[in-house]
Amino acid sequence: MEAGGGGGGSTLSEIYQNAKKLMLRTRDAMERLERLEYSSGSVGMDSPELSSSITRDITHIQSLCVEMDRLCRSLPSKSHRDLWKRKVEQVGEESESLKQSLDKYSLRNQKRMMEAKERAELLGRANGESHVLRIFDDEAQARQSYRNSARMLEEASSTGEAILSAMSGSRERLKKAHRKALDVLNTVGLSNSVLKLIERRHRVDNWIKYAGMILTLVIVFIIWRWT
Q: I need a surface site. Which of 52, 66, 76, 150 has the fewest CB within 10 A?
């Protein structure tokens, strides 16, 4: 006996067959979605289009169950009503099982997205902290380089002062020797030409002395510029 409904609509058998076809398609889609979830290891992949299609099919199956339940209540034979009621309940249970599987998948996917977001935030903070540490290291190196340069400049300055002091002492000794030499020459009555020659030699010695002082200052300046 063919189960039918009022109003010239689809029969109970036709609705049931449509529901079974949708059930097979939805189950296959759910299996593909779960395979896709683990296809790339722990990271997983997502297919919003496939998830939406499964949701629509489950909703459609549940609406067909409601329609089949309405139709089977209008069957005149109790045995037919009981038979169709079991079939409708089975379809409803299968659709509910698929809905639970989809809900679990959605929860897992949401958890993966949250974990990925947290990892990205942690990585961003780690990169930021690393950048700050690099800045501190650069500043510390700059301060150390400045201290080294200051120390080298002080050493060069001390060396220059020591050289100038030694040259100053030498100048005093030369003056004394020059005066003694003049006294001796005057005593023995050397000619003016000899005296002029000695004075000229003294001026040359002074030029050499001042040139040495200038050269020392230039060396100190070069050391300071390159440190």
A: 76
